[in-house]
Amino acid sequence: MRLFFLILACSIALARGTHAEPPFPGSVPFEIQVVPAPPAEPWRLLAVEHEGVIYIAANQLAAALHLEKFWRADLGRLVLSGKSHRISVIEGTDLAVIDDGRLLHLAGPVFLSAGQMMLPLDLFIDENGEPLPWIEEPLVFSKSERRLRIGVPKASLEASRAKVSDTGWQLTLNGTSRLNPEVRQEAGPELIVRLSGTAYDAERFPLPQPRSAWMSWLLGYRSESTADGLELHIIPAAASRGYQVTSRDSNQVEITLGSMTESLQPFSGTSFVSLHRIAIDPGHGGSDTGVTVKGGKEAKLDWSLAGYLQQELLNAGMDVVLTRSDNDDPSPESRSNVANHTNADLLLSLHVHGRPGGPIVYLNAGGGQTLGASSLDDLGFHHYGTDHGSHESDSRVIGTAIIQSIVTSGVSNNMSPGIEAASIPELAGARMPALLLEMGTDPRNGWSDSRLRSLAQSIAAGLRLAAGSR
Ligand SMILES: [Zn+2]
C-alpha cells in the first residue's frame, strides 16, 4: 500500500474531477475549488470531511503550493518542504513537526486513502482561512464557498466615497479583497492611513476630490502609492477633534474625522519643535526669476514674502538668516550651507507657483536632511545611531502647522494637497528640519503686498504653533 502511494505520488498531480473514497465510514467527499492567481482555470482539489475535519490530498496541495515532497514508506513519514520551512507528518498520528522543532497538534490523524496521504487542513490554514506561517504561498480558504485561493491577488480599491456632516467627515474605501489599514500619526496632527498591499488605480476609481465643504474637518488630503501599497495623508482642520479608522468588514475601511462615531483617538499634535533661528530661503533670484504670475515675477514675490516673514519672526523673538540677497541666485548647496553654518533650527524655502491651489509643503525625498558626507566623516568619525532621517518627523510637524495656519487664516481658500516628498536640492544638504513651501496663486487676485504680508503672518503663526508658543 505504501509503495503504491510512492508511485502515485510521483505521477498524480493536479488531477481534475477526482473524488476521494471515504476513508472512514461516515466521512464525505468535500470538493474544494482551487482558484489560482494570476487567473488560470480553477480546478478541484481532492478532499474529504470526517467528523468536522477537512482533509486534503497532500500531493495536490503540495503541487499547488510549490512544496517538494519527500516520502519514506517504511516510516510512513511525509515531509513537505518549501523555501524556508519544512512540515513533517507521520501516518496514523495527529502530530506534525514544523521546521524540525515545533510540534503542532492537528484536528485529526493523517491517513492514507486510495494511495493519497490525506492531511487535515488545519496544518495549512488557520480558523480565519488564512495561511499559517510556514505556508509561503499567499492562500485564503473559504469553507462556506469550498474555495481555496492561491496566490491571492493584491487588493485594489474599487470604490470610495466621502460624506460630511455637522459632526464629522468620513471617507469610506472599498477593496476587491481584504484591506488592512494601519494608522500612523507620529508627526504632529498629520494622519497617515497605510493600506499595505493595496493597489490604487487613480484613473478607474479616483478618490473623492477634496471639496471646500470639508474644510471645517480637514485642510487637505492626498494619496501616495508606495512600493508597499497605498498611503493616505490627511491633515485635520482641528487637532482636538480626533479620528477613528475602522474596518466594518474586511473589505471596507472607514476613516472618520470628528464625532460621527464614538471613542475617537485624539490627534496628538503635542510634539513641538524647538525653533529659535530660522533660515529663510527666498526661491530663485538673480537671472532666475521663477514663474511669472499676476503680481509679478516669482523671485521678487519670494523675496518680498521672505522680508515680511523675517519681520514677523523677529517680532516673535526669533532669529532669522536669509540664504540669498535681493539679486543673486546661490546654488542649492550654498543655500543649505547658510542654514548649516548659522546653526539654524529650520530651513524654510519659499516659493509661489502659477496654478491655483492651497499650500503644499515639500520635504526632501529619500531621507535627505541627513548628515550626508559631512566634515565629520573626513575626520574619521563613523556615523552612529539614528541621525539619518531623524528630521523628517520634525519637518512634518512644522509643515502641518504651517498648512493649518495658512488654510485657516483665509489667505488661501483652497484645500491643501498636504505634505509631499520630492527631490529638493535646496533641502538635501540641510542638517536640520527643512521644507519648501509652495503657494498656489489665485489667478484673479494674484499677489499684492498686503496678501504677501498676510501670508507671512500666517506662516509665522504656523511656526509659533509648531514651536508650542502662540
Ligand atoms: Zn519657485
Task: State the gist of this model.
Helix content is 19%, strand content 33%. It starts with a helix and ends with a helix. It has 470 residues and is α+β, with helices and mostly antiparallel strands.
Q: Which features characterize this protein?
A:
alpha+beta; 8 helices; Aminopeptidase; 470 residues; Copper Amine Oxidase, Chain A, domain 1; disordered N terminus
Rg computed from alpha carbons, rounded to a whole number of angstroms? 30 Å
Q: Reading side by side through the largest sheet, how are the strands ordered?
A: 27-24-28-31-29-30
Structural class: alpha+beta
- The CATH superfamily of the largest domain is Zn-dependent exopeptidases
The CATH architecture of the largest domain can be given as 3-Layer(aba) Sandwich
CATH class of the largest domain: Alpha Beta
Q: Please count the helical segments.
A: 8
Calculate the mean pLDDT score and round it. Answer: 83
Ranges where pLDDT stays below 50 over 5 or more residues in a row are 1-22, 367-388
- The CATH topology of the largest domain turns out to be Aminopeptidase
Largest sheet: 6 strands, mixed
Number of domains: 3
Helical content stands at 10-25%
Q: How far apart, in Å, are the first and last alpha carbons?
A: 84 Å
Count of DSSP strands: 31
| Principal-axis shape | elongated
Work out the strand percent: 25-35%
